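Note to self: the last two entries modelled the partners one at a time, which told us nothing about the interface. This time every component goes in together.
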Amino acid sequence: MGYENDGLKMPAKIIEMGLLPDTLFKILYQAPFGGPLYVEFGEEKSRIALRKEEGDFIIVEDLINAGK
Amino acid sequence: MQENNNKQILLVGNPNVGKSTVFNALSNKKQKTGNYAGVTVSSHSGNYLYKNEEVEIVDLPGSYSIYPSSEDEAIFSKFLIEGQKNYSGVVYILEALSLKRGLLLFQQIQDLGIPMILVLNQIDQAERRGIHIDVEKLSQALNIKVIQTNAKEQIGIEAIKEAVFNNEFVTSEKAGFEIPVQHKNLLKADSEHDYHAWINLTLGKDSDSESKNIVPKRLQVQETVRRYQNADKILANVITKKAQFKELLTEKLDKVLVHKFWGYVVFLFILLIIFQCVYFLAEYPMNWIDEAFAWLSEFSSTHLPEGPINSLVSQGIIPGLGGIIIFAPQIGILLYFLYLLEDSGYMARVVFLMDRILRPFGLNGKSIVPLVSGTACAIPAVISTRNIENLKERLLTILVTPFMTCSARLPVYSIIIGLIISDTTIFGIKYKALVLLGMYLLGFFVALLSAAILKNFIKEDGKTYLVMDLPTYKKPLFGYDFKLVLGKVWDFITGAGKIIFIVSIIIWVLSYFGPKQNSNEVVATDVELDHSYLARMGKFIEPAIEPLGYDWKMGVGILTSFVAREVFVGTMSTLYSLDDDAPEGKVIDKMRQDVKPNGEKVFSFATGVSVLLFYAFAMQCISTLAVVYRETKSWKWTGFQVAMMTGLAYFVSMFVYQILK
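The predicted structure of the combined assembly is written out below.
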């Protein structure tokens, strides 16, 4: 994964939480009606909640469907 | 007196790493810990004595980095950077399960040249997950003293005290983050540390940032990424994975607890259980307390000499105090459940579930924490808004939180519901409990509704977002929380008790004396209640409250409630004990039997509902107002809150009474 605009418009908190470029992550749950995403990432299996709007800054590479 | 050495140390770390638990274990003072980011919303301090050295510990709010994004993080950075001369060193707490994240802030503090000791907490949890941490290597790589603890079990606490005593704080020589060459010459030369100057540059505090043509945010992102890479390198040698991750309890639980449907069902169910317990578990101790005070009143009345003192003690002070102490069990049960929810990590899931629902009202998912804790007390709830990053969302949350049914309303609700609702049950649930639950829901909906209206009038804006840690579930500390609750309940009794003590004396004086009836006395003593000064005052305001369905006694109760809501019950108890016409028995029975001159019941259904609504909406708590002013730093918003809430209370109560009567 990477960030759009070098991450300039998104809250720095995402990066501070450790969701860095080239991190593997999984979206486990989403709250109903387009609510926040429940994301698990990294070796330490950190879990954070973020809204879709913040998630949109993240450039995602799909590893499962890409067959890796 | 013996001269002790004094030392101040700071406890620093990410949220949810067990910082407050370490604080509790170290210091003698009790502080609430929770498993929700931002429980330590203001800095607390405590102290301990070790080998004749007096150490003051300051527990700073948890933060992920030195760059603040909310009020509590701003407090943290300010204290850490600007207060450097005041403290001897930082005790940095790292949770074994999220080392990497914790090392970001650690490196930043190290680069500021602040002396530190590292505490590695909950290492047993990491082992259980098949992660082995080589503490020796970690200590070498970071060039720092490392202490292992399990703060909940008190393990390693003595070692921290010893290390602090021996001043084993280490200041790092080499910087963990090399400031990029192209920016180095931009830094102000007068700063003590290059990194300090870099922070100012990044925060945009450096006056010429603009002319230097840099984007502060880019610097921050760059630094954060670099430091994480650094942490990766360090940890590569420190951590060995012994086994694959087992599925954790957290993963299993979250399948249900954050489920699109079941998650909400569970949350509502938990709330229902809490309220059911508040009403029923509390019933037994409440009866005991009631009987004890009735006995005490009777005892003092027969054993003290006849006269004013007898009347003051047996009809003024004892019923007044008893009226409030009786609610301690309910408040205790409510608080206990709230603590357990926070402690276990469940609160963060509630934020996750509620964010989307609260957003249309101009609130943030994080607003649910102040709103829920507002059901205990609005004061800590208003303070806990500090971790809401967006100013508008924070202000809205502060303005509407006092609508939530706080524990001070509980005594008033209990007594009024007891008066107007019958003892019948439906599906095994008492009507009374349902009405009480209804009052809680009413508070919640009015809070949401007013937020939805007010959001159109608040100009402050800024970007709103939700990025929040979801901590692993932890077994709540049942015994520990119980002790905390006892402490809080005691605070409530003594705090409210003091006010009620004074108020009941004043009320007694005003009702014992009355305007003179014959010319040879200054005032009339031991008058009929109806002829007392109190009745005069009550009757003076009666025209204003009559449309709401209240008689003068309730008017006095409401007047005194503007000090604090629970005073109502104390006032009513005192008033009804003073009424000689009323038969012996519990205060609530006296209130039930009280009739107006025309023979109607004073506490009719319409009046009761009107009182309930008045207390649901009116702003009647001086302490909350003080905190709201402190947090908003605005008389305008504080005044607005009083006018809005009390005005709403008056008109809604009047409207409903006129319809129902």
